[in-house]
What does this fold into?
Amino acid sequence: MENRPEILDQVIGYVNQAWEIAEGWLMSPPAWSQLGLLIAAYLLARLVDRKLKPYLTRLLTPAKDSKSLVAKARLFVLIFLPLTLPLLAWAFTAVGEQVTRSIFGSGAVIAFGKRFFLFLAVRAFAHKILKDPFLKLIGRYVLIPIAALYTVGLLDVVITKLDETIVPLGNMSFSLLFAIKFAVLGGVIFWLGRWSHEQTTQAIKKQEEMRPATRELAAKAAEIAIFGAAFLVLMNIMGINLTSLAVLGGAIGVGLGFGLQQIAANFISGVILLLEGQATVGDYVELDGGEAGTIVKMTARAAILETFDGRWIVVPNEHFITTRVVNYSDAGSAKRYEAPFSVSYDSDIEAIPALIEDAVAKLDFVLNDPEERKPDCELRAFGDSGVDFAVEFWVNGIDDGRNKFTPRVMMQVWKTLKANNIEIPYPHRVVEMKTQDQEPA
It folds into this structure.
């Protein structure tokens, strides 16, 4: 057919070539001997694998409670046990190939079998060993197709075709092979960067002698350094000259000047917050708009507040610099609260402060040291229905969420007043009713 696509002609040609090779193998005695060696190599590999795998499992399995570096290394090696069968078959087939080529001068069939066992090893690696979702994706759509093309002998052909396919992009152009390499290598390198960042962050957060703000700043600096190094490594591997990115850098600068001002401001504000330590992870803050919560995370752009009812509030870092923010803590610092109450006018109001102060001081969460932080009961006012008092007390932490300090103090006050027969008044009202005198009949 004259109008048949060129790629279809190529496919038909490859199919005809494969059929000719298969037909030649079927009619060749050396090919049958190679096939016999191939089957023997596989059966021998299964036998060795059946004997070797239980021994390796016992050898590499560490003690149950062992957490040493050697134990972790043994567990890591143990992960690769599913590869023993295909790799043993590949190794025995390679030996058989050498024997066949020395006897018959050819070994195409057994060489194909060797490549097939290598394909099985790559497939087992992608499906059984890779656990990370991204690495599984790379294994499924990159490693396995490459191994399959190598097995059937088309890898060089496909690579050449991809390299010859040019993709134009404005004033730039690149081959399809370059684009695939860039995507795969970039993904793997930045995955390694993300993994390294997670390990570094965990190590930094274990340094409890460092201030929380210093830990956050160190984690952010490590993140920038790791991903910056990953970018430079990728550019170097792909052979991209960094000076060619000057135009892109200029475009980014213009974007920052016009559309990304807030992002840049939030990033700089986040760096300032981490350096000054005015607000950091673990602090309980109240914003100018009334929102309040504990800072649970600080990113390059915003801080995450968690309220006591479980909501998360995303606050841009700039707000901590340009607006009024009340910081109730360094975590664990002492704070003063008060609990108001009233007593009847018939009570001995001179005895009440000592009674209440002694009772409140017995609560385990109330601070009594130093002297100025002991509970202090004060007369506040003579109200309409009773005498108004308030007891001031100091505690560590915020009086909200899990720590309901004031209700517990008021309960203690009520118990003390009741035990001493001191009346808590309720409002009294006197109502006078006036009626018009009735006219005489």
